Amino acid sequence: MTLRPLEFASPWTAIDVLLSKSQKRWLKPKLLRAQERLVRAFLSYGEPELLGALRRIGVRAGDSVMLHSAFKSTHGFRGSIDQLTNVFLDAVGPGGHLLMVSLPYRSSSLDYLNRGKVFDVRRTPSLMGLISEMFRLRPDVRRSVHPTHPVLAWGPRAGWFVDDHPGCRFPCGPGSPFDKLAADDGQAVFFNVALANFTFFHYLEHLVSDQLPFALYTPDLIDAAVIDHDGERRIVRTHVFTADAIRRRRFAVLEDGLRARGLIRSQRVGASRILAVRVRDAIECVTDMARHGVFFYDTSDLGPPSVRPIAPRDVRDPNQ
């Protein structure tokens, strides 16, 4: 039997290749506990170390930051989710703003609305991870009344970021919290998650939507029922991304463009990795790519392309 090379694979990859399902069920918890002990002994850190890493990566008091995050025992932070969130709040300071996405689905916005779900801004949980969900429950956090791409905001102008969102016909376009993050010269920070979690990507693709040889959005507005902050049922009208656009996305093309221009900052603290991108830099990158005919979609099946075809390397976009 020929085995694929494992020299550069993780232990989890080796387990998946070499062991049966019952063996994996028995061994994985033991490996996880061993990994946790190793992290606690050598790669753990506290609030001062995290704040220092955020300062080194360029987060300053007064900044507006959209945080994408994950929380696991193997990341090394010595503290609770609330304590970790407080570090990010301390990093932006009382004059700054912390934002997170709080999507209520894990599939696509079109699938979510087709299921007839009613988004309740007060009660519908965020499915973007524990940090996002616990941030949603804080009394000083505002959530935008939008059924497909609701955003959480903390800070003195939190209302400015989110209150206009119900009137936005494009969920991540003009007037949305993403548009305002760009206007405020904000940045996206990724705490233990890949850059492919960059929800601001949807604002970037809106900017080039009229240059694409396929429809980014559904042609008709969709009427979605929501429950607002007063408990009142209302209708939000919105376009959503087409299944064709979702299928064609190739986030890796954008990531390669950002890396080639040196626009991704990186820091490590303990067992955690932090990335940061200033959103205006991402806009300039996409504008330059479009000027050269490079877009982050696979259009190779559309005949002579008006958009340069790209290799079908894919990084799934979880924020559909």
Please provide a written account of the structure:
Helix 3 packs across helix 4 (81-92). The strands form 2 sheets. A 7-stranded mixed β-sheet has the order 4-5-2-1-6-10-9, with helices on both faces. Strands 3-7-8 form a 3-stranded mixed β-sheet, with no helix packed on it. A hairpin with a 7-residue loop joins strand 4 and strand 5 (151-154). It has helices at residues 11-18, 21-42, 47-57, 81-92, 109-114, 130-136, 158-162, 177-183, 201-207, 243-248, 251-260, 279-291, and strands at 64-69, 97-101, 119-120, 142-143, 151-154, 187-191, 222-227, 233-238, 265-269, 272-278. It is an alpha/beta fold and 320 residues long. It is globular and about 55 Å long. Mean pLDDT is 88; it is low at 1-9 and 305-318. The chain starts with 10 loop residues before the first helix and ends in a 29-residue tail after the last helix.
What's the number of extended β-strand segments?
10
Give the end-to-end Cα distance, rounded to a whole number of Å.
40 Å
Provide the β-strand percentage band: 15-25%
Radius of gyration: 21 Å
Briefly note the structural class of the backbone: alpha/beta
The major pleated sheet works out as: 7 strands, mixed
Tell me which oligomeric state these chains represent: single chain
* Mean pLDDT metric: 88
Spatial order of strands in the largest sheet:
4-5-2-1-6-10-9
How many structural domains does the protein architecture include?
Answer: 1
Number of helices: 12
Poorly predicted segments:
1-9, 305-318
Q: Name the shape in a single word.
A: globular
Helix percentage: 25-40%
**H/E topology pattern:** HHHEHEHEHEEHHEHEEHHEEH
